[in-house]
Amino acid sequence: MLAVLSPGQGSQKPGFLTPWLDLTGAEARLRWWSALAGVDLVHLGTTAGAEEIQDTARTQPLLVAAALLAAEHLPMHDVTLTAGHSVGELGAATLAGVLPAETAITLAGVRGREMAAACAIEPTGMAAVLGGDTDEVLAALDRHGLHAANRNGAGQIVAAGSITGLDALVAEPPTKARVVRLKVAGAFHTPYMAPAEAALAGVAAGITPARPARILLSNLDGTAVDHGPELVQRLVRQVTSPVRWDLCMRTLADLGVTGVVELPPAGTLAGLIKRELADALPEIVTLKTPDDLPAARDLIARHGSAARPAPTARFRVVTAPAPGVFQPTQGLTEGQALKIGQVIGHVVTGRGPVEVTAHDGGPLTEWLAHHDAPVAPGQPLARIGGHS
């Protein structure tokens, strides 16, 4: 199984898009996307300096554009799974078929501007906590009034919150841990970003997303999202919620992913995977320049699989959000009417139970998985009658 991953903020480097503009149509594409994002993506990806591309309002649409620009040159029809880190999830949503590229670029522009504005409300920041016992690190963050904004696995947790709290954490680091201040504008993925979440929600409400055409993992809990509107809701919530990349990597391992392509600016996610999944390391290609395209295409050819055609049955199907054992809600039988959002069961995973909800109303026509049946992400669990 092959996964294509889209990196997030912090992975950018000055001039990293320069070689990509030699490809036919690339510069024109970036200029069109620049109009949607409200920033000059050509300048930012080629001649802008490090300080300029650290600006959240500029960085976020730049990263989404870079991932999508490179992915246009890959045989994505053979890719089974996509995932993205933080803002990279907008790119992953496009690669999974949920959002058009123009929509993802526009959302990235709004997200970046609004998060930058939220950062200006009061002084906040972030710091990487490297090493130490996870429980001790989380306890230290709680003690100083900080949030675990990113849990990246491999002994890396990113703390976020007030400058006072970060100063205290640096002065009193957890046992066997090192604290490194990050050059960011504020406390991303924390309640400090609530104004940005509200603004993004207002724009996202006008989107009509499609159902994912391939497995798409969510940063919220590492599970596969099968429903377009739910994915958009998760993208909005992600602004104030922790990025659980550690759980995304566990799902990659659970699914037996054997090949990974990281889109530009590649390297950060590959490094995390190499440290976290060392015992079952997939083959990885970091797609940094067009010179890496032949290796990426070869990896996809060897590890990918042709996409399955969309089902034609006129039913709505509820699918598993995570790998585990399915337990339907007790007493819920075929023929009963379901309401939108009703819990119809749980998938019991190694990290605890994950709710399975009905995304549409109607009669429960048929159970497609039975009690204690092992299931994989995206596997059909129940059929809701009616027309799709």
UniProtKB/TrEMBL annotation:
Keyword annotations from UniProtKB, A to Z: Acyltransferase, Transferase
Organism superkingdom: Bacteria
SUPFAM superfamilies in the record: FabD/lysophospholipase-like, Probable ACP-binding domain of malonyl-CoA ACP transacylase, Single hybrid motif
Keyword Endoplasmic reticulum belongs to the record: no
Malonyl-CoA:ACP transacylase (MAT) domain mapped to chain residues: 5-325
The enzyme's E.C. designation: 2.3.1.39
MF terms (GO), sorted A to Z: acyltransferase activity
Pfam families membership: Acyl_transf_1
Keyword Acyltransferase on entry: yes
Catalytic reaction annotation: holo-[ACP] + malonyl-CoA = malonyl-[ACP] + CoA
InterPro entries cross-referenced by the UniProt entry: Ac_transferase_dom_sf, Acyl_transferase_dom, Acyl_Trfase/lysoPLipase, Mal-CoA-ACP_Trans/PKS_FabD, Malonyl_transacylase_ACP-bd, Single_hybrid_motif
PANTHER family in the cross-refs: MALONYL-COA-ACYL CARRIER PROTEIN TRANSACYLASE, MITOCHONDRIAL (PTHR42681:SF1)
The name this protein goes by in its record: [acyl-carrier-protein] S-malonyltransferase
Organism: Micromonospora harpali
UniProt lineage: Bacteria, Bacillati, Actinomycetota, Actinomycetes, Micromonosporales
